[in-house]
Design a protein that fits this description.
The complex is a heterodimer. Chain A is an all-beta fold. Chain A has strands at residues 3-5, 10-14, 19-21, 24-26, 32-39, 46-52, 59-61, 64-69, 74-79, 88-100, 103-110, 114-119. In chain A, a hairpin with a 4-residue loop joins β8 and β9 (74-79). Chain A is globular and about 45 Å long. The termini of chain A are far apart. The model of chain A has no long low-confidence stretch (mean pLDDT 89). Chain B is mainly beta. Chain B contains no helices and 11 strands. In chain B, the strands form 2 sheets. In chain B, strands 2, 4, 5, 6, 9, 10 and 11 form a 7-stranded mixed sheet that branches. Chain B has a 4-stranded antiparallel sheet with strand order 1-3-8-7, with no helix packed on it. In chain B, a hairpin with a 2-residue loop joins β5 (44-50) and β6. The model of chain B has no long low-confidence stretch (mean pLDDT 91). The chains are: A mainly beta, B mainly beta. Chain A binds chain B through residues 4, 33, 35, 37, 42-47, 50, 52, 91, 93, 95, 97-98, 100, 102-108, 110-113, and chain B through 33, 40-45, 48, 50, 53-56, 89, 91, 93, 95, 97, 99, 102-110, 112.
């Protein structure tokens, strides 16, 4: 069974600090996808990134960067120079393909989320 | 491009009453998902449709929850009768059908249900 662990329940930083959100996953599949979603106070889950299991290249998008390490089953997310608008709950998620009669089923399993508060 | 639409945004009912939620996915997305998110937890998949067929409903409490997607586009999720523990945010998501999409799901704003 797939599992996602976000050990940090809450993190509080001061604006302009860098912050890293940890994500550790468990899966028996060799093909899988990892995701990060942001959930601001408005409640909508905002898609941030998808990474497949064969691509261990780190990715940078503006102030956001992701570090994928298969050796430690981790997919950590770093926000550089944090801003108040970054305050939200961040979810890491894992998707494995289940092949059934209805076709491929990519079921998402979410971690419990990390509440990030960025103070001015 | 319009995102996933959901209504209502908020609903307050008493236990044993019925309630229904509506979702309109992103145009062209054949796969539709309903999730339940209890406060302080990550979303949990209730049911997944591919076009108008059910792919996975293993975590749907079928004694009180039902969902349909009759024409392969809009979907409704119903709870009848509601219990206190059904208080949660109900999220709808959609994704492209092709495996190459890797299951990138896009979420609606959710419906916050409070059962008194």
């Amino acid at each position: 069974a797939q599992k996602v662990t976000q050990a940090q329940t809450e993190i509080s930083v001061v604006e302009k600090e860098d912050v890293t959100l940890d994500c550790v996953y468990e899966t028996r599949d060799t093909t899988y996808y990892l995701f990060w979603y942001k959930q601001p106070p408005s409640g909508e889950l905002v898609f941030l990134i998808r990474r497949n299991s064969f691509d261990e290249q780190n990715e940078i998008s503006g102030r956001y960067s992701w570090n994928f390490q298969k050796s430690t089953s981790s997919f950590n997310f770093t926000i550089t120079a944090s801003q108040v608008v970054d305050s939200a709950v961040y979810f890491c998620a894992l998707s494995e393909a289940e092949i059934g009669s209805g076709g491929s089923n990519y079921k998402l399993t979410f971690g419990k989320g990390t509440l990030l508060t960025v103070n001015p | 491009e319009a995102g996933v639409a959901q209504s209502p945004r908020y609903k307050i009912i008493e236990k044993r009453q019925s309630v229904a939620f509506w979702c309109n996915p992103i145009s062209g997305h054949a796969t539709l998902y309903w999730y339940q998110q209890i406060l302080g937890q990550g979303p949990k998949l209730l049911i997944q449709f591919q076009n108008n067929g059910v792919v996975d409903d293993s975590q749907l409490p079928k004694d009180r929850f039902s969902a349909e997607r009759l024409k392969g586009v809009d979907s409704t999720l119903k709870i009848q009768p509601a219990k206190l523990e059904d208080s949660a945010v109900y999220l709808c998501a959609s994704s492209l059908i092709f495996p190459a999409a890797g299951g990138s799901q896009f979420f609606g704003p959710g419906t916050r249900l409070t059962v008194l």
